User: Fold this.
Amino acid sequence: MLSHYRLVEKIGEGGMGVVWKAEDTVLNRTVAIKVLPADLALDEEHRRMFLDEARLAASVAHGNIVQVHELGREGDLDFIVMEYIEGQPLSKILPGRPLPPDKVADWGLQVAQGLARAHHKGLLHRDLKPANLLVTPEGELKIVDFGLATLFSRPDPRTGSLAITLTEALPGEPATRIAGTLPYMSPEQVRGEKPDARSDIFSFGTVLYEMTAGERPFMGRTPADVAQEILRSQPKPLHKQVPTVPLDLQRIIEKALARRPEERYQHMDDVAVDLNRLRKDLEAGSSPSHADLHIARPRSRPHLARWAIAAACVLIIGAAAVWYFQRPVWRNPLEGARFTRLTDFEGAEEHAAISRDGKFVAFLSDRDGTWDVWVSQVGTGDFHNLTHGSVQELRNPEVRTISFSPDASLVILWRRRPDSGGAGLVDGGWAVPTMGGALRPYLPGIAELDWSPDGNRIVYHPPAPGDPLFVTGAGEKSGQQIYSSKPGVHNHFPLWSPDAAFIYFVQGSPPNEMDIWRIRPTGGEPEQLTFHNALVSFPTFLDNRRLLYLATAEDGSGPWIHELNVERRVTRRISTGVEEYESLASSADGRRLVTTVSSGVAGLWRVPIADRVVHESDATRLTMPTTRGLSPRIGTGFVLYRAPKAGTDALWMVKEGIGTELWNGTDGRVVAGPAIAPDGRSLAFPVQTQGLTRLYVTNADGTGARRLAEELDVRGAPAWSPDGQWIAIAAIQDGEPRLYKIPLGGGTPVRLTEGYALDPLWSPSNRFLVYTGANVGATFVVNAVTPEGAAYDLPELSLSRGSRRMDFLAGGDELVVMKGDIFRDFWAVDLRTGRERQLTDLDRGFSITDFDISADGREIIFDRARDQSDIVLIDLAAH
Assistant:
């Protein structure tokens, strides 16, 4: 027995450990358990990497990846509990036997989709090979041993996993230590270089080649011979191995096996797209091979041969022409569209919605001094305020706040009503007549909803942990739950497909780690369709096949308009230019769109802290060398801030009126406010590049950059301990942020929390750290922990989403927080007594996201933005 698992039989053994089939005696299920070898467990570094990589692998949920259930320890044994798969490894199916092209495309697509999901989570496989691909009796492929390949350093004759040193056997190459399975390694792995996603793509190409040809692309008598082949030679052309290989399949494999990484596929998503297209072509019988293009020339009757060749050429050309002109041709839906600016008010308009018939547009605007719901009939130029200041806190950028009822008679709105704690309670599901009238309850207590195409059913979610999705029956207003995420993971923008076959929604950690998923209205397992892991919002259908939505780019720029082909799982950015879009909706026929185009600015301001509430007249703007500024931090005689520009997000210092760029955003985006060491000599800040966020430490002038705790994928802003010896930061663990403290002198990060934790802040006394918990609806709770990881009691304190930044007043336990939904003010909370006092009463026309307090406690410097945005109508051209 291991814990509550009864070992049944040994099903595998190798350098990575012994794998057992086991019975979970608590949950009554069959599992697979991998045990870390005892000799490796004695090596603390191997053990730490084993556990960290397994935790990361557990965070990747995909149908083609064997799921990790649990990490366990029994005595001195560490073990991983995984999903048990009935089936056999691909390595037992392949030897000497090429697979049919349709099977290669199908199985290859499954592997590519699983790898794409892992890569988007920042996880590489590094040992992809047929032995690590399990085939179920139903023909499903499951990837195993994710992320563990490079952790072990001894050869294993049973699996071929190697850790060898190549020296004189490779003339001209430096002595290189490599780890993995040599015949499936990329050239850069063989050279001992650090692999990236393109290395997995090369290994995937070797597996595709072997599936297609029945033999590996790189072979030799010794490991050095194989390495030489990988580094120096090209595989045998596939069409000479298998004359009937489809041309498109050969091209996919050749591109995946390009020796230079920059000449390969750059993203596994692109491989999956091409394989999916090939699979569909094979099903339709329209994927030619070299054999199809070869015309035999008989020695006798040459004139007949010439006529046969000519006739065959005519047939081929004719067939190609028919295919070319009848094939589905993608066109940008915005091509030839007519753009009409509906509003040019002073200030901002947001969250545009359009009625199903395309005749009415509703939106939020601060035109009359307060945020209200406005409506206009398209073509009239008239605008009507429907709420007249009667609804507080209408705005929430993370959800769809307004929509029309199916018959366009009502505008449904989201709102928050204030509570005694100042955070506010979601009270959605209210309605106001489109032609004007009293506000009335529609579906009280919900956050978002959408109607089925026939208008008889509703999908909705309340502001509860995990944003559970409910679907009603025909004519009902109370539904059955079909899905719920774990707390901290949100499901926003629920949307019926035009054929009512699926519910589409945006899932993830808002605002910047979201993607589009779908689920059947009857429930079941949800399916992920996009892999941006970015700010994704406002999905809307043009037709059964095309879904438009907004998403930021990998560099943080945007949001831009994207199109998702829900049949082929292909995504494209379709908006061009520099306009940033903040909302999107379409009419039922997909011919008319309405969107919000933004041109907001953000700057830095300062306000004194006094014994009274200070007002807007006390605020002054800081002079900066850049047009925008975010996340200020105050040092001795200087101010640091982030400067967003086309997604690059650099780090700047202003000292004695002179601006200096400390970190160029082209080297990676600075994604949160920096932390200044207590002695002012060093800085710490998070930098995002290639989908991962790492913690950097530099000198105060930006020199001497180095990474701390490279194994951590960090989130939010860091905080320095008062003694300058530790940095606290949140990092992803088991799919959620956990709190860590990292020693400045080097060493292993120490985890401080088991639950969801972001934005830590050390108390001046060093007795505790405060941090923020998971959003529940639109609020979160402030918690505390000691530097040793023990819970620390605080007065109950809840804040609204977007207000996670906190700071201490000098020398005490008085915490400064932001209160309010979008337009926030500063309050001080005494953590000993719970007593609160308001510090500011600022202009509500601006939104604040981040701030810092001077060391003497006399002033606050904060960023704030005023949106300048307009509603734009897009009439699509007929294609």
